[in-house]
Amino acid sequence: MYQIAPSILSANFARLGEEVDDVIASGADIVHFDVMDNHYVPNLTIGPLVCEALRKHGVTAAIDVHLMVKPVDRIIPDFAKAGATYITFHPEASEHIDRTIGLIKENGCKVGLVFNPSTPLEILEYTLPKLDMVLLMSVNPGFGGQKFIPHVLDKARKVRKMIDAGGHTCRLEIDGGVGPTNIREVAEAGVDTFVAGSAVFSKRNMQDKNRYNTVIAELRAELAKAKK
Ligand code: DX5
Ligand code: ZN
User: Fold this and answer.
1) Is 88 in the pocket of ligand 1 (CB under 6 A)?
2) Is 5 helix (H, G, I), strand (E, B) or coil?
3) Which of helix, strand or coil describes residue 30?
4) Which of 27, 75, 156, 166 is deepest in the core (most CB within 10 A)?
């Protein structure tokens, strides 16, 4: 089934707990949590303390931790303890991809690999059976609000074929520049999990009890039109 994963990168950090409550109450499925280190990517965001704070606040939805950090391994147990559901990482940021995959699983989390727009897919040949998620970046990582890079649709079709041909259960997620105007064609390329940051959080409606009802409903309506 399709899952919508709002990226809290575009939320109001001064009231983050309520933002996450609101977006889940409005019908979102999972919380996309962008971790940036000002080293692997040129921006700096949030770490395990914030993930733990969301759990303590009462967030029970899956938290999809997208690590844009290098090195990767040191921080994995901290995120597992902090309540991460998925931990995804960029292969360029790990010296030993198989070890990092194993480490995430040993710590009780679901694991995913993230491919930048121009990163080739070869690594999947040896990793796909172990993965719970493949995340395709449709922008260069580091910032919200960028423009969707169209060649990633071809990549999505390729990964969908690989997942189906191997009978894998892994989810196919896309991240960057996704909103109501393109979510349908992204779904038609085989994606089942949709990160949307600015498209969701810029549509806050203070008149509605569930502040993001309208935009989440709009995304779902577009998904309903997607041809299988
Ligand atoms: C970019 C992040 C994305 C970002 C998406 O490095 O990984 O999750 O927040 O933001 P939008 O949906 O605004 O492109
Ligand atoms: Zn992300």
Assistant:
1) no
2) strand
3) strand
4) 156
Considering every ligand atom, which ligand is closest to the CA of 147?
Answer: 1
Ligand 1 binding pocket includes 183 (Cβ within 6 Å): no
Residues 6+ apart with CB under 8 A from 64: 5, 30, 31, 32, 33, 85, 86, 88, 133, 173, 195
Which domains, ranges and CATH numbers included, belong to the chain? 3-224 (3.20.20.70)
Residues belonging to the chain: 228
**Residue that the structure tokens 């997942």 belong to:** 163
Residue type, 172: L
In terms of Cα–Cα distance, which of 151, 214, 162, 141 is closest to 186? 151
